[in-house]
Structure of Phosphatase PAP2 family protein:
Amino acid sequence: MKNKEMYLTRGSFALLLFVILGYVVKFYPEQLTSLDSQIQTAIRGDLPAVLTTLMKFITSFINPQILPIWVLLLAGIFWFKKWRSESLFLLGNLALAGLLVLFIKNIYQRPRPAIIHLVVEKGYSFPSSHALAATLLIGSLIIISRQRLGKNRLSYLVQALLASFILLLLLSRVYLGVHYPTDVLAGLILGFALLNIEYPFYDRWRFQWRFKGRQK
């Protein structure tokens, strides 16, 4: 496909950034204390009740109890419409996000922030599983909407709304006190890296299936 090398290079560079950030978190976490604290203070403010309710609502879409439900629902709709590669792309990234979180968090074992948590969370903090899952899965939907809707105002609007949701989700994890800003940044970078590495192969697979009449 066109620009395959560009996607792989971009993904590899983002993956390198994640490794560098992870190295600092693992061996020199004190170097990030000032940066994390300043951003936390700016985002959290005085924790108004209305904003807290909104942030809890946003973050709930990526909670382990809710996430598989809407992903399976969307994947089922895609499959019914004979968008087979899109359905499997979404399901594959759901599984990938879950496996990576279990593996990577145990490598870094970063404790969660020692500040007030507005939701209950267990386990380690780095990287943010919500940020990784949101970037991978909502990012997958951005790719699918761009391919299916083409280049028009509706397509751009859908992509902008989906990208805005990712941003709000990242902010919600810091606001709720369960992640450092560098945790959500790491999840975003890793998800972005994986999407770029996956995309050329997914796009080729999708083209082949359409050419062979295996999907619309």
